[in-house]
Design goal:
Blueprint: E1 9-13, H1 25-31, E2 39-43, H2 49-57, E3 62-64, H3 67-70, H4 75-83
């Protein structure tokens, strides 16, 4: 539906809104079906540097990181930790 709408930015929620479980694999699987030139945003459940690295390796360059930063004592330091290897 998102592709058919002509959207240039497409976000994929990794959270199942029925049971609130999280599976970052949703983004990994759907990214494979996305044509080049679309901005793909992985949303929810991104709480580790390993997850950020895995998403980036799959061609996902944009992620919505909320919970990890909200719970962090130092959001700036947490963001550095999450994305540090990508520089």
């Amino acid at each position: 539906m998102a592709l058919a709408s002509g959207a240039e930015i497409i976000g994929v929620n990794n959270r199942n809104l029925q049971d609130f479980s999280v599976d970052v694999g949703n983004s990994l699987n759907l990214r494979k079906k996305m044509p080049a030139g679309k901005i793909f945003v992985a949303e929810s459940g991104i709480i580790s540097a390993a997850a950020v690295k895995e998403l980036n390796a799959a061609g996902i360059e944009v992620a919505l990181i909320g919970k990890a930063l909200m719970r962090a004592g130092d959001a700036r330091e947490t963001l550095k930790e999450l994305c540090g290897e990508l520089r």
